[in-house]
Amino acid sequence: MEQSAHPLQQPDLTERIEHAVSGHLGQPWCVAQFQDLSDLASHPSALLSGHGATVFAKFSRALNAIDQFEAEMLGLKFIFDQSGVSIPSPIGIVSSEDGAALLLEAVEAVERTPQRWRQIGQALARMHLIKGDQFGLHLHGYFGSLYQDNRPVTSSGTDWPTFYAERRLWPRLIGAIDAGHLPIAIARKVETVIARFPQLCGPAITPALIHGDAQKNNFISAAHGAVVVDPSVHFAHPEIDLAQLDYFEPVPDDVFDGYRDVAPIDPGFAERKPLWRLSTDLAVVMAGGVEYLPRLIESVEPYL
Fold first, then answer.
1. Whole-model pTM?
2. How does pLDDT run across 271-285, given as a tens digit for each residue?
3. What are the sequence ranges of the domains in the chain?
4. What interhelical angle do 114-128 and 65-83 show, nearest 10?
5. Would you identify the CATH topology of the domain 7-105?
């Protein structure tokens, strides 16, 4: 039988999606309209519309797709339960022989005015007000497709430089080298910076609930405020999120002004910002983004 061009339109998967959404709504539901969003996402994605609901669905053929989607859904629920920050309502995960799909209630986006940008900063700060006893989380996660180990690394779990090095930088550094994407000379510079962490990471901080991948496209501006999506949630240094906001593209100052409406930004953040971007630099290079090598060098040079 000829297959549909879009994996979310495979008949067996469509049937499972309709069954899951019907159970979520408590009434029969079927797909009447299909809007492909794959050009706007890192996975094959779509809006599925039918009587009573519009559903956002994203698909993956990864061998661990179900685990990735379960981690994402649990992360979203954790953010909402802990901070009250808005998330898309989770519907569930369905699978077929070809892969798996994550289903969320669709969020209607509105134009990003200065006030909407400000709401992104306010939502992020409200998350950061939630404090934990240890760096990490009882849930594992993913940064994109990369596994994220959230286990504390010390008995107290309150040593931030050690957590950042052991759970973020070393795994991604080794992964980038093993993938053949990171020249050894640059890797040595990263190792030098990691060795200096106790002097570079600034004052001791209390673990804060962070999004973990807080670049601007992981927020949806809705009529009722900012909605968070695609988290890599755990307790960490809040400046990790602040450094992510404009990692791929600039954001207006309204975002940071909104953050300051709720919580302060330490004056030393600007000096530490490249340090917090180092984990993302390595992750992107590890995943094949060799064009980000100059960014990686820029992140380490100030600390050598």
1. 0.94
2. 999 999 999 999 999
3. 7-105, 114-303
4. 90
5. Phosphorylase Kinase; domain 1 (3.30.200)
